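S1.2 Input.
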Amino acid sequence: MKSDIHVCADWEAEHDRPVYTLGDTCPDCGGNAVNSVPAPFDPADPHGSYRRSLKRRNRD
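S1.3 Output.
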């Protein structure tokens, strides 16, 4: 999944908080900006069946 929102790749070293932008570079330090969305869900998750059954059990 591709997102339009990017975060400064070096924010932990350069800034006191994450710096978000729509461009490819950080507006404050000029560093690279990377995609801010998390990694996609893996459908081949080996423990997925256990998590789903536990979720169903807790819902009932």
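S1.4 Remarks. The first strand starts at residue 6 and ends at 8.
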